[in-house]
Design brief:
Largest sheet of chain B: 9 strands, mixed
Oligomer: heterodimer
Largest sheet of chain A: 7 strands, mixed
Number of helices of chain B: 10
Number of helices of chain A: 6
Order of helices and strands of chain B: HEHEHEHHEEEHEHEHEHH
Largest interface: A-B, 34 and 35 residues
Number of domains of chain A: 1
CATH class of chain A: Alpha Beta
Distance between the termini of chain B: 23 Å
Order of helices and strands of chain A: EHEHEHHEHEEEEEEEEEH
Strand content of chain A: 25-35%
Structural class of chain A: alpha/beta
CATH topology of chain B: TIM Barrel
CATH superfamily of chain B: Aldolase class I
CATH superfamily of chain A: Class I glutamine amidotransferase (GATase) domain
Number of domains of chain B: 1
Shape of chain A: globular
Helix content of chain A: 10-25%
Strand content of chain B: 15-25%
């Protein structure tokens, strides 16, 4: 088993994630190779772009079947977290099905523009190693137009008109809707926690 | 670089890098520099300056920027917004608008980074705001040219007019000179964020002090 691998699901902007691990003194490689991913110690599933395009790429690379079978820690970020669910309304896409539920589109209103873009606090934090040492008042940076509902695997909700899943975990599979790599010290703490799972 | 780190340490929530002479000079923002900034910065940052194609945007995003902002190139080729939004998602695509009140109403301007080349695009700003949202913009930065650089306050009336037709995050730009100008933009114009340059660069307003005042005024910000 070697190091941390960031899955190249076709989106741009993997550098900011790599730099975030680098700031923690950890090296993270980018790969779309099933063999390299299966052999990694930890795996990060990022995601910028659309659910349908990301799933198409994961299927084409043979990763849609590999990912749910992994036993090492996996962290989905933003769209990457949404892909852990069964289904996404974005392009009516069948996702990885690791977590139960459907990702829905946020409804814009005057007070709540969509995309939801900005810094928010998490409403509550379950006790979990992924959230260890976090100040409950910490703010995290969110950018998304789709969101996962609350469920039995929600570790922390965020309020944006309604309560949504901000952090989820089922066994080795973790997901965060915010961008830890752009959430200052609090985000770095979440990534550091992931590295010690 | 030093500025970027200083603002991060002082509590800025997002940094926007404008290479304002890129478009008028027909070039695009320096990639190696974006990469150096991305390496040290752990808050979101947006890069603007001469991004004319999906390939231009891709290289800036691959260098570590969070979002790209397009202004003059989008006025020249509005289809650029659709292409960027399809490829990277609306959340990556900011449209900057340089706007000024004319006898015909608010009009959008191009190439404002070079006074000699600045020209009125002929586009009505409120129409343009509607159009860029339909094309897939995820955020709009409205720079009110009439108030830009003079520090007499944001153009609240204009921001309100744009807010009324804007369903994506709206960022106020141009005119910040005092803490109460920020409060007014959030309270009276309902913007989602306020951008300023010179008052921070020149140390006229300290970010921590500004945030304290906004919190005291009941506006939720990250302390």
């Amino acid at each position: 088993m070697t190091g941390t691998v960031i899955i190249d699901s076709g989106g741009a902007n993997l550098a900011s994630l790599q730099f975030a691990f680098e700031r923690l003194g950890a090296e993270a490689r980018v790969s779309a190779e099933a063999e390299e991913i299966a052999a990694a110690e930890r795996i990060v599933l990022p995601g910028v772009g659309s659910a349908s395009e990301a799933m198409r790429r994961l299927r084409a690379a043979g990763l849609a079947r590999l990912l749910p079978a992994l036993s090492q820690p996996v962290l989905g970020i933003c769209l990457g977290m949404q892909l852990l669910f069964e289904h996404s309304a974005e392009g009516e896409t069948e996702c990885l099905g690791i977590l139960p539920g459907t990702v829905r589109r946020l409804e814009p209103s005057v007070a709540r523009p969509v995309p939801h873009m900005g810094w928010n606090r998490l409403t509550t934090l379950e006790s979990d190693p992924l959230l260890a040492g976090l100040d409950p008042q910490s703010y995290f940076y969110f950018v998304h137009s789709y969101a996962a509902p609350l469920g039995e695997f929600t570790l922390a909700p965020v309020e944006y008109g309604e309560r949504l899943s901000a952090v989820v975990r089922r066994g080795n599979f973790c997901g965060v809707q915010f961008h830890p790599e752009r959430s200052a010290a609090a985000g770095a703490r979440v990534l550091a926690n992931f590295l010690s799972l | 670089m030093t500025l970027a780190q200083r603002y991060r340490d002082e509590g800025a929530d997002e940094l926007v890098f404008y290479d304002i002479t890129a478009s008028p000079q027909g070039r695009s923002v320096e990639r190696s520099w974006v990469r150096r900034v991305a390496r040290v910065l752990d808050i979101p940052f947006c890069v603007a300056g001469g991004i004319r194609s999906v390939a231009d945007a891709e290289s800036v995003l691959n260098a570590g920027a969070e979002k790209v902002s397009v202004n003059s190139p989008a006025l020249a080729d509005p289809g650029l917004i659709d292409a960027l939004s399809r490829r990277f998602g609306a959340q990556c695509v900011v449209v900057g608008i340089d706007s000024e009140l004319t006898a015909e109403g608010y009009r959008a301007y191009q190439f404002t980074g070079d006074p000699a080349r600045t020209r009125q695009s002929g586009r009505d700003v409120l129409q343009w705001v509607r159009e860029v949202q339909e094309r897939g913009a995820g955020e709009i930065v409205l720079n009110c040219m009439g108030s830009d650089g003079v520090r007499h306050g944001y153009d609240i009336e204009q921001l309100r007019a744009v807010r009324a037709v804007c369903r994506v995050p709206l960022v106020a730009s141009g005119g910040a000179g005092a803490i109460e100008h920020f409060t007014a933009a959030f309270r009276e114009a309902g913007v989602d964020a306020a951008l300023a340059a010179s008052v921070f660069h020149n140390g006229i307003i300290a970010i921590a002090e500004l945030k304290g005042a906004l919190l005291a005024a009941g506006i939720e910000v990250r302390p």
